[in-house]
Design brief:
Elements (H helix, E strand, L loop, with lengths): L17 E9 L3 H15 L6 E8 L9 E9 L1
Parallel strand pairs: 1-2
Antiparallel strand pairs: 1-3
Length: 77
Amino acid sequence: MCTSSQAVSWIDEGFVKKIRGTTFSTRVSVQFENSTIKATRGIINPLVSDVHIFSDHRSGPQAGKYDSFHSVEFVEY
């Protein structure tokens, strides 16, 4: 189980065409997910205009036992 994350460092600079991402959360308020999307778009939108971030929120029995929220972004050159 991953307990920490590291910042991304650019190895090869180039032209980014589009960014796609997914945020998902379980057993937490959907506002956590929305604030993650807002913060991510606030950083990325001035640099790349083609940004789409999908959100997936689970609650109740289908969410499992543990609280969590995550964000994953993919870049296409």
